């Protein structure tokens, strides 16, 4: 369902997927509709849930290379929805799957002292 919080913000739809980071913690993605463009992202959920471990950029690079999704320097997994490409639902599922795999990769990183 579209929701906005301020006049200058664009409608955002929360999409629940059948995936879970861990049991009871669903993978959700957000679709932002701006003008004639749609962007789907995890809003950095995978990185946030994993606790931003040292070396997370290496896991990011692997996911980017293997799954062909965009990942920002802040750890947000995202893709645009383009008219000649897959539909919004397919892109949302792809971003959700990439977010889950990114999360799993982050959990496999060696623990560091803290």
Would you report the number of β strands?
6
Oligomer: single chain
- How many separate domains? 1
Rg, nearest Å: 14 Å
Largest sheet: 6 strands, antiparallel
The global form is: globular
Give the topology, please.
Blueprint lengths: L1 E2 L8 E11 L2 E10 L2 E5 L3 H6 L5 H12 L2 E2 L5 E5 L6 H20 L7
Antiparallel strand pairs: 1-2, 2-3, 3-4, 4-6, 5-6
Helix pairs in contact: 2-3
Task: Characterize the structure shown.
33% of the residues lie in helices and 31% in strands. It has helices spanning 45-50, 56-67, 88-107, and strands at 2-3, 12-22, 25-34, 37-41, 70-71, 77-81. It has a six-stranded antiparallel beta sheet with strand order 1-2-3-4-6-5. α2 (56-67) packs antiparallel against α3 (88-107). The longest helix has 20 residues, at 88-107. The N and C termini lie far apart (40 Å).
Outline of this structure?
The protein is of the alpha+beta class and 114 residues long. The chain is 33% helix and 31% strand. The protein has helices spanning 45-50, 56-67, 88-107; strands at 2-3, 12-22, 25-34, 37-41, 70-71, 77-81.
Keywords:
114 residues; alpha+beta; six-stranded antiparallel sheet; 3 helices; 33% helix; 31% strand
């Amino acid at each position: 369902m579209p929701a906005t919080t301020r006049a200058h913000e664009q409608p955002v739809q929360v999409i629940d997927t059948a995936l879970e980071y861990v049991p009871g913690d669903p993978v959700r993605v957000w679709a932002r509709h701006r003008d004639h463009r749609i962007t789907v992202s995890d809003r950095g959920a995978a990185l946030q849930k994993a606790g931003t471990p040292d070396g997370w950029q290496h896991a990011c690079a692997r996911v980017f290379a293997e799954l062909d999704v965009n990942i920002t320097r802040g750890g947000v997994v995202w893709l645009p929805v383009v008219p000649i490409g897959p539909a919004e639902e397919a892109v949302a599922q792809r971003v959700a799957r990439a977010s889950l795999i990114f999360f799993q990769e982050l959990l496999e990183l060696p623990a560091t002292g803290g």
